[in-house]
Specification:
alpha+beta; 614 residues; 23 strands; Immunoglobulin-like; 5-stranded antiparallel sheet
Amino acid sequence: MNNRFIILAILFFSFLLSFGQSFNFTTTIRDNNGNILKNQPIKIRSSIIKDDANGTITYIEECASTTNNYGVASIAIGKGAAISGDFSSVDWASKLFLKSEVDINNDGNFSIVNTTEIPSAPKSLYSNSTSKLVLTADDGNKWNVNVDNNGNITTTPTENFSTPEYGTVDYIFDMNALPTITLEISTDEWNKMLLNFDKNKENEECIVVDFLFNKYGEIRKVENVGLRLRGNTSRVRPEGSNGELHNSTNPNWHHCHYGFRFEKFQDNNLFSGTDRFSLRWFKEDATYAREIYCYDLMRRFGVWTTPKSSYCRLQIKIKEDSETAYMGVYEMFEGLDDQYLDDRVALGKINQSSGFLWKMGWGNGVGAYLTKDQANETMMGIEDIQLEGTSYKFSYDYKSKKKKLPEARTQFIEFINNLNDKTGEDFIQWAEQNINIDLLLRACAVTVAVGQWDDYWCNGNNFYLYFDTDKKCHYVPYDFDNSLGTSTSGLMDNPGTGNPLSWGNSNRPLITKILSVDKWKNQYIEYLKQLASADNDYLDADKSIARILKWQGMVEKYVDNVTGEDTQIIDRSASWSSGVKNYKLLTGNSEGGNNGDPNFFKTRIKTINSLLGK
C-alpha cells in the first residue's frame, strides 16, 4: 500500500468528556487518490504541544484503531500508551495544539498529517466549587457534569439519547441536536449567486463555499462545496434587489432555500458519507414544525422511503466581511442521491441502488398524473435548467444514470400503460408484482391524515418513484410544507374535514385503481384508523402536541435572525390559506370550521373516526 495518504482530522474537546481524563479525536482517512480506507487497522501518534504549533511537546502517546465502513477512526486521547510525559499533568488552561501522525501499515513509520489548536475547555471544569453542573452546549442541548469523591468527572445528557456515528446520514439528521452550519463564501462567489439569480431565478448553478458543521462543539469542515438556491414559487434572492451586489456595510439579507453538492467541484468530497442535502427555511410556517412533523410521522409509520430531516442553525460568513450573518433556524432534509439509495439497500428495503429514480412535478405545465395520455417520451427526460438559453423541464424528471435514460423511459412507459390498461384479477396480479402496495398505502394514509393536498392524489406533484432492479415501483413522499391545516380554495378548502376516501382527483390511477380493490381499500382504512388511534403515538393530539413542543423548545431561542423574517414561533397556519385559515396545532377544538378556534389534530381525528369508525 502506498504510504502517502490524505487525512481529514477533526477535534472534539469540550465538557462532553472529562478534563484531565481523555478527549475524543476523530479522523477520516483516505489514500493518496482520495479513496476512503475502509476497515483499515492503523496506529495514531498524538502529541500535545504548548503555546504554539512549534512549541514545547508536553505529552506523546500512541493508540491503535481501525477505520469503519466510512473510513472513520476514533480514539480517546489520554487512554493510549504514553510515550513521553504525563497526560494528567497537562496544563489545560494554557494554549495547546495537537499534532497527529498516522501509521497506516503498522510498520512503525509515522507521517505527520495535521497540527490543530485544541479548543479551550470550559473554565468551570477547573473549579472545585461544585460537585455537579448542568452546562449548555453550543447546540442548546444540556449536559450533566458530575464529579465523584475521587475527583473523576463524568458527563451525561439531561435526556437519554445517543449520538449517531459520523460517516452516516443519521449523524446529520439527528432530532436530538441543533447543529450550526456556517458557510464561508468569498464576495466574488456570493455576487455570482446574486447575478445568476437575476439572469434566471430557476438556475441551478453552484457557487464554491467552505462548509462547517458544528455539533456538540465538534466542528467538521469540508472545503470547495457546491451551493445553489432551491425552491419553486418560494425561491427568492438571498440578498438585496435585482442588480445589486453584496453590501458589506449594510446587507439586506433574505431567507431562502439552499442545496449542497459536496462533490460538485471535488471528487470524494463527502460529508458524513453523503454528497448532498438541502436546507429549507420555514416559509409561511410560524410553528417551525409542519414539514418536520410530517416527515417524522411518515418514518414512525414505516414509510422508509421518506427523506430524513431535522433542525439546524445557519450562518453565512462572507470571507472579506468582519461580521458573520446569523440566518436563524432551518430544516435540513436528505437528498435523494446514491447514498440515500445505498442506505435503503443496507436496510434490506431495496435490492440495488442502480435502479431508476424519477421525480414528479409540473415540468410541462401539467402534473405527473401517471395517466395513459402521459405515457410518452415528450413528458420524460432529464431536467436541464440553463442560466441563459433554452431550458428543459419535464413532468417526469429522470434522476439516475444519464446513459440509462432510454432504458428507464421505456420501462416507465410500459409501467404507466399497464397501470391504466389492466383490469380485474390481471391488474391485481400485475400490481402485486410491480408495486410496493404496502408502502404506497402507508404513505397515502399519512398524506391524507396530515391534510397534505400538494401531493400526487390532489395536485399530481411532489413525489418520487424508484424502480428497483426487479422493476418493482416504490413510492417516495416529498415536500410537506402545505400540510396540517394549510388550505387552498378549489383544491382543498378544508383539509381537516376532507373525506379520506375521496381525498383528491379521481384521475390518479396509482391511488384510485389500487383503492378500487377491496382488500387494499380495507388495508388503507385500517392504516388511517391506526394513525388516528389514541393508543398509538401517531396523529393523537396530545402526543403530537408533546412532540412539537419539545422541538419548539429546542429551537425557540434561536429563531431570531438578521433577515427580520420569521423571528417568532406562532401557532397559526399559513397567511395565504384561502379556505379555513385558522387551524392551530397546539390549542383549539375539534370543530374544524371557519369560526371558532379549531385544532387540526383534533379535527382530523374526529373526521377519520366519524367516517371510518374507530
